[in-house]
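Design a sequence for this backbone.
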């Protein structure tokens, strides 16, 4: 415990999530179960969670913000112990860590420091726990040329496995031509880009009230908008080898792709895509945060098992049954289950056996 505590104090990483200023990591209850061994077809398999979060308080401070006292209070060995215990309970062997972007309005000199600190800390953490973590690099997308450089440095210098990005940059869609240098670099490196929404400010009034709609509806809606622009504005045709994984199961796109397809028949002058929208579902990637076995079955039917990876949104209690959801989904072969639970992520993230 002493060694972990000292390491995590030195690295300055806090394990938190989508709303870093207002949430706490759940305490691990006493008598936690032993590490779950996930079996498929009589074989032990390695499970990899594509959707898990951390923050780096030192970087957040440079942006003029701070983590709350409860977050700061878990910057020791207890933090890692609790996370590993929860992963063991849920049956997730590894997590691909990402930091949600909160720096897209920062000036170039400040954000350069922020990204450098974050990527260094992520690299340190993954080096310390290589059997538990890989991570996505942070990038400053408000400066696409800088983001391309940061992605290359993250992959080649820090052994990070791709980039984590938001769904827009200060209201600008990422299909805009000014972001092409970033997409070109991601395609050139052959690495995965993990997109996580950060909110749609212009929708806040409509989503106010009960139900937590800014998250429950807003996050998958932003994901849907992001993917639709990449398709219909031609980005995925311009960079056909691009590897993009969308959080929250691709939002509403996989469930309503038929309307997207027909939209190009109704408004052909507004579609720059070379294929039907539904065809791109077979080249994009998605986490499986759909919460039911029927949701998983439908996602596989629309996108294919080869395009899916488990995601929990840890440390938030959204999807703690995701391993069982995959195992219990009717109609999946053992090969499908192994692919979704870990093999797809291992291939995309270049995680060795």
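Sequence:
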């Amino acid at each position: 415990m002493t060694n972990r505590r000292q390491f995590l104090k030195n690295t300055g990483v806090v394990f938190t999530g989508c709303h870093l200023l207002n949430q706490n990591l759940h305490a691990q209850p006493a008598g936690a179960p032993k590490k779950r061994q996930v079996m498929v077809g009589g074989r032990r398999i390695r499970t990899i969670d594509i959707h898990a979060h951390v923050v780096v308080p030192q970087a957040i401070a440079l942006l003029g913000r701070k983590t709350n006292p409860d977050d700061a209070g878990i910057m020791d060995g207890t933090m890692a112990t609790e996370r590993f215990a929860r992963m063991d309970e849920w049956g997730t062997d590894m997590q691909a860590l990402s930091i949600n972007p909160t720096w897209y309005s920062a000036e170039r000199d400040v954000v350069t420091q922020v990204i450098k600190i974050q990527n260094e800390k992520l690299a340190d953490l993954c080096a310390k726990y290589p059997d538990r973590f890989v991570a996505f690099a942070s990038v400053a997308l408000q400066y696409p040329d800088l983001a391309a450089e940061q992605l290359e440095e993250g992959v080649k210098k820090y052994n990070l496995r791709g980039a984590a990005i938001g769904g827009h940059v200060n209201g600008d869609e990422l299909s805009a031509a000014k972001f092409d240098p970033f997409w070109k670099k991601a395609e050139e490196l052959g690495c995965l880009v993990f997109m996580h929404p950060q909110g749609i400010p212009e929708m806040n009034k409509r989503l106010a009230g009960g139900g937590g709609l800014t998250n429950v509806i807003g996050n998958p809606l932003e994901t849907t908008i992001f993917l639709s622009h990449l398709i219909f504005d031609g980005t995925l045709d311009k960079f056909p080898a691009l590897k993009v994984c969308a959080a929250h199961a691709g939002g509403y796109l996989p469930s309503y792709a038929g309307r997207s397809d027909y939209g190009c028949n109704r408004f052909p002058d507004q579609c720059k895509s070379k294929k039907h929208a539904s065809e791109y579902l077979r080249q994009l990637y998605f986490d499986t945060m759909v919460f039911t076995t029927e949701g998983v079955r439908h996602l596989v039917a629309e996108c294919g098992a080869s395009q899916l990876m488990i995601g929990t949104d840890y440390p938030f209690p959204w999807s703690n049954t995701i391993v069982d959801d995959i195992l219990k989904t009717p109609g999946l072969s053992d090969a499908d289950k192994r692919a979704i639970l870990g093999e797809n992520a291992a291939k995309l993230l270049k995680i060795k056996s």
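The chain has one domain: 40-65+90-348.
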